[in-house]
Write a structure and sequence with these properties.
With 506 residues, the chain is an all-alpha fold. It has 22 helices and two strands.
């Protein structure tokens, strides 16, 4: 014990103070640890500061400091009248703002565009907020009901029938196309060197068309009888609702578990009837506004939103088809994807606008804007298919094997396990395609559709606002609008990615 006590040591003097730790937080910490912590970073910081000074300062000076904010014509934006070097001419934007938003849409009917925008915001914002309830109902209203309501609001017009008449019309058009193809082969056999072969094929095709016409005869006869009544729309509506509700009841489980499906079907048709009555679709609806009068931000949003919403399901279907074990589906998916990815978007728009009508029957026409929308949806869908396929390839094989061991079918395995994980992996790629599509909508001006940039260029021809800074002001305004939408999509994608990858946070 004495040895231990004698060898113990107790300090009698205080230690000298150590220097304070280097600050690594706040602005000073950012400069010390990120901006000036090495010669390379010092050089990059100086170059970046110079670039910001040479770009942001002149932009702010042009857009705000030297800008003209009020005026009635070009005289207010001339240097000799303003007394200084004029920057942005904002009175020009104020005067042309209706044209940049609505294009040549009739002024008396622009409330329909405003109502469409309001409905889109009301349905979209709750869908983007994760904590709000009723996501299924909200998604059904936005993706199914809203496009129909928006079409009749923007385009106008009414309906002359409902589901039964529309089904009969489509089947009859398909039958007439088959018969016409057979007749064309028969006419070609009169002057061809392989006349017997063409005559035989033509006879078979005409016979197939005749058989189809007899099969759909009860449906077309019922359509004609309904259209002969004074209330063709409502008669067709009642018949369609009864048939669809009965099918939903049977598929839902019949007397045991089909009542929920029956109730949902009836509620849906009641809501549809209310919309038809409220908008007067059974009596011609709103005045028709041709799509060649649409323009500005309206066309930009219609093309981009339609392309975004429709391209993702197309891409998912093609990606799953490309991985299918059925050779016909796999070959078709590969051919479709490689064809559309190998063709420029401008070529697709030209083909959809000018060549597609040549392949349609003579009595069947498709609106020019609809043709462009179809071409953009198919083009973007091919690119989305490769994005989705990359996500599917990143899923370990054990995920599907574990699902199969639990007894899940292929559909449940894909929709509940594999596909959600794949889409989570490729969120940046998908949103990148969406942003690219939003900016590529300016290409529709090539096929005589005036989007935001098209309407902007058209406004430059007004001599009332012809000034040296008019074009720069217009393009700056358009750039701000594009930046707001694209930056919003980018930030929301980061939010979704962070929320869905909570298990990977450090």
């Amino acid at each position: 014990m004495s040895d231990i006590a004698s060898s113990s040591f107790v300090r009698q003097d205080l230690l000298t103070e150590r220097p304070a730790p280097v600050k690594t937080t706040g602005f000073v910490g950012l400069m010390r640890t990120r901006l000036f912590n090495s010669p390379t970073n010092i050089l990059l910081t100086i170059v970046g500061a110079l670039l910001l000074w040479l770009t942001i300062v002149p932009s702010v000076k042009f857009l705000m400091v030297d800008a003209v904010w009020s005026g009635k014509d070009r005289a207010a934006c001339l240097t000799e009248n303003a007394g200084f070097a004029v920057g942005a001419c904002w009175p020009y934007i104020q005067a042309k703002l209706p044209q940049l938003i609505y294009g040549f849409y009739p002024e008396a009917e622009r409330w329909r565009v405003n109502l469409t925008f309001v409905l889109a915001v009301i349905l979209l914002v709750p869908l983007l907020v994760p904590r709000l309830p009723a996501k299924g109902l909200n998604a059904s209203l936005f993706f199914l009901a809203f496009p129909v309501v928006a079409f009749f609001l923007l385009h106008g017009g009414g309906i002359k029938g409902f589901g039964l008449s529309w089904t009969a019309d489509v089947l009859q058009l398909f039958d007439e196309s088959i018969v016409n193809a057979g007749q064309a082969l028969l006419n070609l056999s009169k002057t061809s060197a392989v006349a017997p072969l063409l005559w035989g094929v033509g006879q078979v095709v005409v016979l197939v068309g005749t058989v189809i016409s007899w099969l759909i005869f009860p449906l077309t006869w019922l359509r004609d009888e309904i259209q002969g009544t004074g209330q063709s729309v409502w008669t067709d509506f009642v018949v369609t609702s009864l048939v669809v509700s009965l099918i939903a009841f049977v598929l839902g489980g019949g007397l045991r578990t089909g009542w929920n499906a029956l109730g949902s079907s009836i509620a849906t048709f009641i809501a549809i009837a209310a919309v038809i009555k409220l908008m007067g679709l059974d009596h011609g609806g709103l005045p028709v506004v041709a799509t060649n009068l649409w323009g500005g931000l309206l066309v930009t949003l219609v093309v981009s939103v339609t392309g975004i919403v429709t391209s993702l399901p197309i891409g998912i279907a093609l990606a799953l088809g490309r991985r299918s074990t059925i050779p016909l589906i796999r070959i078709f998916s590969i051919a479709f994807i490689e064809f559309w990815r190998g063709v420029p978007l401008i070529t697709v728009l030209f083909f959809a606008t000018y060549m597609l009508p040549l392949f349609l029957p003579g009595n069947f026409t498709v609106d020019g804007l609809v043709r462009a929308l179809i071409g953009i949806a198919l083009f973007t869908g091919a690119y989305q298919a490769e994005n989705v396929r990359g996500g599917l390839a990143a899923i370990p094989r054990g995920q599907g094997e574990a699902a199969a061991a639990l007894g899940l079918s292929w559909w449940k395995t894909t929709s509940l396990i594999v596909l959600p994980q794949a889409l989570r992996h490729v969120i940046p790629n998908l949103v990148n395609s969406f942003i690219s599509l939003f900016k590529d909508t300016s290409l529709v001006s090539i096929v005589a559709l005036f989007d935001l940039l098209g309407s902007l260029r058209a406004s430059f021809s007004d001599p009332k606002w012809s000034t040296p800074s008019t074009a720069f002001t217009g393009f700056a305004f358009a750039g701000i609008i594009y930046f707001i939408f694209c930056f919003g999509m980018s930030r929301y994608s980061l939010f979704v990615e962070d929320r869905l990858n909570a298990h990977r946070r450090n």
